[in-house]
């Protein structure tokens, strides 16, 4: 079975798009990440509603990947060919607004949908019959752009990890979360491809175990040694001198460099700071929300308490008494002062702050 450099089998490609000559036969083909690592199964989405549900249920997850999936989701809109131009535009814009409600924190989702909205608004009435194909072309460009960004993040981040032996990561910011190499894992894949293989500690990442289920799986596929640890073990590993660097992804980064990532990232940054271990965030520039002055303004998704009370899913054992309350925020925010550097496709932002972020993003 063929693989890309990340080691993910072709059969497990995160997102595929089916766009034949007949635009109405379009479909989005997603790897169902809720079933990994036990089962490789794909979900075909043929309507925006199905795509919305897939994003909400984490069939597809990871900030870049949900942006790509949502862009393709716009192309699944069905429009009455007899409708006038205003009605056609309105139908597409309704789909865009609807898909934007699937998840609130990852800004890549809104960035991708804004690109699709610009296409809807730019096509002249006389060329409106071309709109479905123009939208498909734009979604494919978004997908291709992400591949290039992941590759560049890997190249830019590799020197920061060059002298490391053991790196710790949290959640999944690899090929499963993007189009190909990932963000946080991209420098690790780049080094591996060029003859330097690091050992990775993958935080289990409760409550949905994306580190244990997804990161450990894809690193194993690539032949990169990986050890799964529970989230609470990270401090002990650092104290013992077993962690040389921490690298994570991000779902939204404010103008001052504060970064929202999977819940549990903030305490990792505090631990790394205490133990004088570099803490890196890797993300494409479309993850930055320059309209937000600080991370205090980033909306944090609150998810179903059942993810905590029944960690094995509906058929799993209940681990929390019914009388207890449960909180389940999906993300937390790491202040910029705890981040050693942010790795982007345009370059590395050392000592992130508003000025340093703006310098790289405006370069």
Automatic annotation (TrEMBL):
The UniProt annotation places substrate binding at 61-63, 103, 210, 261-262
Sorted alphabetically, the keyword list is: Amino-acid biosynthesis, Isomerase, Methionine biosynthesis
> What does this protein's UniProt record list under function?
Catalyzes the interconversion of methylthioribose-1-phosphate (MTR-1-P) into methylthioribulose-1-phosphate (MTRu-1-P).
Q: What is its EC number?
A: 5.3.1.23
Q: Write down the species.
A: Neorhodopirellula lusitana
Q: What is the lineage of its organism?
A: Bacteria, Pseudomonadati, Planctomycetota, Planctomycetia, Pirellulales
Provide the GO MF annotations for this entry: isomerase activity
Could you tell me what reaction this enzyme catalyses? Answer: 5-(methylsulfanyl)-alpha-D-ribose 1-phosphate = 5-(methylsulfanyl)-D-ribulose 1-phosphate
Q: Which domain of life is it from?
A: Bacteria
Q: What class of enzyme is it?
A: isomerase
Q: Where is the active site?
A: 251 (proton donor)
Q: Which family does it belong to?
A: Belongs to the EIF-2B alpha/beta/delta subunits family. MtnA subfamily.
Q: In which pathway does it act?
A: Amino-acid biosynthesis; L-methionine biosynthesis via salvage pathway; L-methionine from S-methyl-5-thio-alpha-D-ribose 1-phosphate: step 1/6
Per its record, how is this protein called by name?
Methylthioribose-1-phosphate isomerase
Provide the site residues for: Transition state stabilizer.
171
Entry annotated with the keyword Amino-acid biosynthesis = yes
């Amino acid at each position: 079975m063929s693989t890309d450099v990340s080691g993910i089998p072709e059969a497990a490609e995160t997102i595929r798009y089916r766009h034949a000559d007949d635009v109405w036969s379009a479909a989005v083909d997603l790897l169902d990440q809720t079933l990994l690592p036990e089962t490789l199964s794909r979900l075909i989405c043929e309507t925006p509603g199905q795509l919305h549900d897939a994003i909400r249920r984490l069939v597809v997850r990871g900030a870049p990947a949900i942006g790509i999936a949502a862009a393709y989701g716009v192309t699944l809109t069905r429009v009455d060919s007899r409708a006038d131009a205003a009605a056609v535009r309105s139908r597409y814009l309704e789909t865009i607004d609807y898909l934007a409600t699937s998840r609130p924190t990852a800004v890549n989702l809104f960035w991708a949908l804004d690109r699709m909205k610009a296409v809807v608004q730019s096509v002249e009435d006389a060329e409106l019959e071309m709109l479905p194909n123009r939208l498909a072309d734009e979604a494919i460009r978004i997908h291709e752009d992400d591949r290039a960004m992941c590759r560049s993040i890997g190249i830019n981040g590799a020197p920061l990890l060059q002298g490391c032996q053991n790196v710790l990561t949290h959640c999944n910011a690899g090929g499963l979360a993007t189009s190909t190499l990932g963000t946080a894992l991209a420098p690790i894949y780049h080094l591996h491809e060029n003859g330097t293989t690091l050992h990775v500690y993958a935080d289990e990442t409760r409550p949905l175990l994306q580190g244990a289920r997804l990161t450990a799986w894809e690193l194993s596929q690539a032949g990169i040694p990986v050890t799964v640890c529970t989230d609470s073990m990270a401090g002990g590993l650092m104290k013992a001198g077993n962690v040389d660097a921490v690298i994570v992804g991000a779902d939204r980064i404010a103008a001052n460099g504060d970064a929202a990532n999977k819940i549990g990232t903030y305490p990792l940054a505090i631990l790394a700071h205490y133990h004088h271990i570099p803490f890196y965030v890797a993300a494409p520039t479309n993850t930055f929300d320059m309209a937000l002055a600080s991370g205090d303004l980033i909306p944090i998704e609150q998810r179903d308490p059942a993810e905590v009370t029944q960690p094995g899913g509906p058929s799993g054992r209940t681990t929390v008494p019914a009388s207890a309350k449960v909180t389940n925020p999906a993300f937390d925010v790491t202040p910029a002062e705890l981040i050693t550097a942010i790795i982007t496709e345009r370059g590395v932002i050392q000592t992130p702050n508003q000025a340093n972020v703006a310098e790289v993003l405006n370069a």
